[in-house]
Design goal:
Elements (H helix, E strand, L loop, with lengths): L1 E3 L8 E9 L3 H10 L6 E4 L8 H4 L5 E4 L3 E2 L2 E2 L20 E2 L22 H14 L9 H7 L11 E8 L5 H11 L3 E5 L2 E7 L6 E7 L5 E11 L5 H8 L24 E9 L3 H4 L5 E4 L5 E10 L1 H7 L4 E7 L9 H5 L3 H9 L8 E7 L8 E8 L5 E7 L3 H20 L3 E5 L44 E3 L14 H16 L1
Parallel strand pairs: 1-9, 2-3, 2-12, 3-9, 4-19, 12-21
Antiparallel strand pairs: 5-6, 7-8, 8-15, 10-11, 11-12, 13-17, 13-20, 14-15, 16-17, 18-19
Helix pairs in contact: 1-5, 1-12, 3-12
This protein binds flavin-adenine dinucleotide (FAD).
The site of flavin-adenine dinucleotide has 39 residues, from α1, β7, β10, α6 and α12.
């Protein structure tokens, strides 16, 4: 059942077996998976079915440090997340890829790397996540695409590999799951309900209740057996840090880890590519469609990256090089491209002094090393409901720039050696530090997962180490960020969390 928070009596105390805060892809996947489990589920969502500017303003905050740019425009937290039923899936691009097996491992080049489990643990949940995101297939292996979709590959293994991404339609999780959740008698979805505090027992070891408020002034409480915080990688630390009724440093934050290790996916338009072969040879690397052997059409975009071994040998993190074709006229502004990142940076690069018309621009999306000084903290300004604004402190590290430089160089050398293309790094000759950087709208790591409570906020089941009945769903739990877009992985983790809650 869906209800409006203003229809709940002032001062009421609602109860449920499981309370989920937030209705984005993470929260709604958990809710949908709990239908039929015998558990009563209550979802609290800040927004409604339509976008509302006053609600959106609750997400306002600041960025300090390095510029946080999207399409060459400085952006703030309220511009990179939606406060609405379905969360940011209402405007995501839908680009999907699972993390690589080595993303889960301890890697010498990436301080703080290593997930509590390997890729094989998440594999069955990726299959479910692919269905949740309405992907045509859960297979991303380049060889399979060569055989099943007649893809011509520019690289097939070591040291350079092809990295396949697929596009979700894109799935709007609210629209898709509304009928199921509305019809289910054990599920309540309360819209326009803002959680303003997570209240724990005096020791901070159990959540007792949530304080909820609406913009019309209604206030009520919710008590549940277990709670799932699914409000995204910026709002999760914000709410935990702001909930100081029983714990002065915030809920689950005795070790000062909540909000730290914030990671984005920096995107760097880095070089021009001049192809020596006709379009058919590199078409798979442009945003487009492939027809599978069974006749279905799939939206996909392949990139080029280094093998796990090549990354280890170069002492760098993961990255993928994506091609934006300029084509004959040098104009790369297709609608789909306009939706994606880095357009203006790429346009500037295309325009820079060369008499030769380039065929395309390469943009490198890099894994960012987890750095405790990249973090979400609280500012002094309060939102309309009294919650301190989130402040993102963000910068690139030398390791991030090394990953960028080494990846584009090795991919360029591979393309030249195979005679496929010539890559020209930033033609202005500027140092890598000056190359334009864009963000990916991916917010990861702020409640990172680790088996050791001194090194992580949540355990391998996404349960907070310090709070026995509080779980986190979403990319906030990622210990490392890989180079793949986060939603497929966070949905896979949500499926896994739902299984855990069901038992
Ligand atoms: C322009 C854009 C393009 C993107 N493209 C891609 C892409 O191609 N591929 C990809 O993988 N990812 C993409 N993303 C990222 C993707 O949208 C997120 O990874 C995904 O939405 C995260 O899901 P979530 O459920 O964790 O959080 P969200 O989608 O952020 O949902 C959180 C929900 O919690 C609610 N909430 C917040 N605070 C409170 C509170 N205090 N009380 C109650 N409710 C609250 C919010 O209203 C929201 O509905 C894109 C993002 C943007 C902005």
């Amino acid at each position: 059942m869906l209800r409006h928070a203003d229809d709940i009596e002032e001062g009421a105390a609602l109860t449920a077996d499981v309370c989920i805060i937030g209705s984005g892809p993470a929260g709604l996947t958990v809710a949908a998976e709990l239908v039929g489990s015998g558990l009563s589920v209550l979802v609290l969502e800040s927004g409604g079915e339509q976008w509302d500017p006053r609600t959106q303003a609750l997400a306002e905050g600041r960025v300090s440090g390095e510029g946080f740019r999207f399409n060459s425009t400085e952006v703030t937290p309220d511009l990179v997340r939606l406060r609405q039923f379905g969360g940011s899936s209402n405007h995501w691009t839908g680009m999907c890829r699972p993390f690589d097996p080595h993303d889960f491992e301890v890697r010498a080049a990436v301080d703080g790397s290593g997930w509590p489990f390997g890729a094989e643990t998440l594999a069955p949940h990726y299959v479910r996540a692919a269905a949740s995101c309405d992907l045509a297939t859960d297979v991303f292996d380049a060889g399979w695409w060569r055989d099943q979709a007649a893809a011509t590959l520019l690289a097939d293994g070591h040291p350079v590999r092809t990295t396949v991404f697929q596009f979700s339609p894109p799935t709007r999780f609210g629209t898709k799951l509304r009928p199921l959740l509305d019809a289910d008698e054990s599920t309540q979805v309360v819209l326009w309900a803002n959680v303003t505090s997570i209240d724990t027992d005096p020791g901070g070891t159990r959540v007792d209740r949530l304080q909820v408020a609406t913009l019309s002034g209604r206030r009520f409480q919710v008590s549940a057996g277990r709670y799932v915080l699914a409000v995204g990688g910026i709002e999760a630390p914000r709410l935990l840090l702001a909930s100081t009724a029983s714990a002065p440093s915030g809920v689950g934050n005795s070790n000062d880890l909540v909000g730290r290790h914030f990671m984005e996916h920096p995107h760097h338009p880095s070089g021009r590519i001049l192809f020596a072969q006709p379009r058919e040879a590199w078409d798979f690397y442009t945003i487009g469609q492939s027809t599978l052997a069974d006749g279905r059409t799939v939206s996909r975009w392949a990139g080029l990256g280094l093998s796990a071994q090549a990354q280890a040998e170069a002492g760098i993190a993961n990255a993928s090089v994506q091609l934006y074709p300029g084509l004959e006229g040098g104009d790369l502004r297709g609608d789909r491209d306009r939706e994606t990142m880095a357009m203006r940076g790429i346009g500037r690069l295309l325009a820079r002094g060369s008499s030769e018309p380039p065929l395309g621009v390469l943009s490198v999306r890099t894994e960012q090393v987890p750095d405790p000084d990249n973090r979400v903290t609280l500012g002094r300004r309060l939102d309309e409901l009294g919650l301190p604004e989130p402040v993102i402190e963000w910068h690139l590290n030398p390791e991030d720039r090394t990953t960028l430089r080494a990846t584009i160089r090795l991919v360029g050398e591979h393309l030249a050696a195979t005679g496929a293309a010539r890559v020209e790094l930033d033609p202005s000759g500027s140092p890598v530090e000056d190359w334009p950087t864009e963000i990916g709208n991916h917010h990861m790591g702020t409640t990172r997962m680790h088996v050791d409570p001194n090194r992580g906020v949540v355990d391998e089941n996404c349960r907070m180490h310090e709070v026995e009945n509080l779980y986190v769903a979403g990319s906030a739990v990622f210990p490392t960020s890989g180079m793949a877009n986060p939603t497929l992985t966070l949905v896979a983790l949500a499926h896994r969390l739902a299984d855990h809650l069901r038992t």
